[in-house]
Design goal:
mainly beta
Length: 155
């Protein structure tokens, strides 16, 4: 019987909410914690500029590094290591497209921006995008392109 009484009281109290004298919902007290709004959700792929839609690759030299951005995964690699992150989508920030993820062993932030003629510093190839990758405390700089549109020697 005692359990039934406690359960009934809990159910009745769970439906209570503070009310103003006029019967409307009362405002929270002045010393209540502020409600923090969530950051804007990443843009769906269709909302990104065409140059950033689909699979992308970025790479750089000194040191050698590479990034592959796929539909559901981001892979960062160096000659010493490979790290995979879930692709949570990108956001357009100040004219650049940014992917961020703190779920892996180290936080990663990939920033791509349009820059015709980006040079990787080791070949005569020109890429349409500049890339910057911040991983942990290290920043890598290089170039990027859509996977299907990577520049090739001789064309």
């Amino acid at each position: 019987m005692r359990h039934a009484l406690l359960i009934t009281a809990a159910i009745l109290l769970s439906g209570c909410q503070p009310q103003a004298p006029d019967g409307s919902v009362a405002q929270p007290p002045a010393d209540a914690p502020a409600v923090v709004e969530a950051a804007p959700a990443p843009a769906p792929a269709a909302a990104l500029p065409a140059a950033f839609q689909g699979d992308l690759v970025a790479h750089g030299t000194e040191p050698f590094w590479g990034v592959k951005i796929r539909g559901n995964q981001i892979e960062f690699s160096t000659p010493e290591a490979n790290i995979a992150f879930p692709n949570k989508g990108a956001a357009v920030v100040d004219g650049a497209v940014v992917w961020e993820n703190a779920d892996g062993p180290r936080p990663i932030k990939i920033t791509l921006r349009e820059q015709a003629g980006c040079s990787d510093g080791m070949s005569d190839l020109k890429y349409p995008l500049a890339a910057e990758v911040a991983l942990g405390g290290t920043t890598y700089k290089g170039c990027a392109a859509r996977t299907a549109e990577q520049p090739k020697e001789g064309r």
